[in-house]
Design brief:
The strands form four sheets. The chain has an eight-stranded mixed β-sheet with strand order 2-5-4-3-6-7-8-13, with helices on both faces. It is globular and about 60 Å long. Helix 1 crosses helix 7, helix 3 runs parallel beside helix 4 and helix 8 packs across helix 10. The two termini are 32 Å apart. The chain is α/β, with parallel strands linked by helices and 384 residues long. It is built from eleven helices and 15 strands.
């Protein structure tokens, strides 16, 4: 049940290591970048159909910038399973491989024996150029790049690169009265993701064969952003869930495993050449609906939803809610019509997959913090 509650606030190492491892409203103005082309629980993660598990015609030598958490973890497994030689470029501060929840020992050992690691700091541009040019790669997946200046040395080092596949963001779109966001829509050069826009522009200007993927909100096992985890913490504690404004704001989530499949599907795909694709879930959902979907996925009772006016509160630097307080969703029709891409997970099924393989096992990235909830609920915080 939901109720509106109007409450008064109470108050690196750059040494080269390369080896196999054993273990919203707008005035309709903005900037357009012009391109040349413009069931519930699953025991195993398997694509529905072979047609959605695209394999490049030949084995590729692939570099993933990042790859040790979330998107890269699932992407690297798919690429290795297809027989590609995959190298992860990381600073080496986190384990390069980890056994996934539900992954068999044999599958993990097989993956660990095949993945390669290139240790370095991508901010050390000279090191990037020298190490990449020495090794040579056919394809680069840039999962963690945020600025164009980080991508330029990669392009310099690999003049014969066959494809550069970039993880951008739907956050680049200009706020608009007209939704959903489509790939040809105006973008916001002042957004916090402006570096991704500049990277897309750089890729176009350099004449490389590139593909850019723009996810909306991503969820799934190992999510380091408190998306579904934020709701699961409150559901597990049996607390009300505070939701800003009416709770009817519409948003969109896409499962990380579906996103990884999309990244594989554009590999060596002529239809993806110099193209941008939004990738996310098939359905849009309200904030209230998402809270209820999380409850259903985790087997919790119907949650109590508390609506509040965020303008009545000063939460300091803390975020009281994990989503933009606005409508925010994008069309995925282009990926369906051009690539034939289809998601494997619906929202509740995807949330159940996330819960069963992660939070439900007692693992999560961040401890529960209900301090902003308590401000909203008018409770007094007690230091422990």
């Amino acid at each position: 049940m939901a109720r509106f509650m109007a409450v008064t606030p109470s108050q690196q190492n750059n040494q080269l290591s390369f080896s196999p491892l054993a273990s919203s409203l707008s005035d309709f103005s903005g900037t357009k970048l012009h391109y040349s082309h413009i069931n519930f629980k699953r025991k195993q993660w398997q694509p529905k159909s072979a047609s959605f598990y695209v394999s490049a015609s030949t084995t590729k030598k692939i570099l993933i910038m990042g790859g040790t958490r979330f998107i890269g973890v699932f992407l690297s497994r798919l690429l290795v399973k297809e027989g590609h030689q995959v190298t992860l470029f990381t600073r080496g501060k986190a384990p390069v491989t980890q056994q996934l929840p539900g992954e068999s020992d044999s599958d993990y050992v097989d993956f660990s024996s095949k993945i390669l690691h290139l240790k370095g700091d991508r901010q050390d541009f000279e090191f990037v150029k020298s190490s990449l040019s020495a090794k040579g790669f056919d394809v680069v997946y840039d999962i963690n790049g945020r600025e164009a200046v980080e991508v330029e040395p990669i392009l310099d080092a690999l003049p014969n690169l066959e494809q550069f596949i970039y993880c951008s963001s739907a956050g680049v779109y200009l706020k608009s009265d007209l939704l959903p966001h489509a790939e040809v829509d105006a973008v916001d050069p002042k957004s916090r993701h402006k570096g991704k826009l500049e990277t897309e522009s750089l890729l176009q200007s350099r004449g490389v064969n590139w593909t850019s993927i723009r996810p909306v909100y991503i969820y799934g096992p190992l999510n380091y952003n408190p998306v579904e985890e934020w709701f699961f913490h409150r559901l597990k504690a049996g607390r009300p869930i505070p939701i800003p404004s009416s709770g009817l704001q519409i948003t969109q989530l896409g499962h990380v495993k579906d996103l990884a499949r999309a990244f594989v599907q554009v590999l060596g795909n002529d239809k993806a050449s110099k193209e941008i694709f939004n990738i996310s879930g098939d359905k849009y959902v309200t904030f209230d609906g998402l809270a209820r979907a999380c409850a259903k996925a985790g087997g919790f009772p119907e949650p109590e939803l508390i609506h509040y006016n965020p303008k009545d509160y000063d939460f300091g630097k803390k975020k009281a809610f994990p989503f933009r307080d606005q409508h925010f969703f994008a069309s995925t029709e282009k990926s369906k019509s051009v690539l034939g891409f289809e998601n494997e997970f619906d929202l509740v099924g995807g949330l159940a997959d996330s819960y069963n393989l992660d939070f439900g096992r007692g693992t999560y990235r961040k401890e529960a913090d209900f301090s902003t909830d308590d401000i909203i609920l008018g409770k007094t915080l007690v230091s422990v």
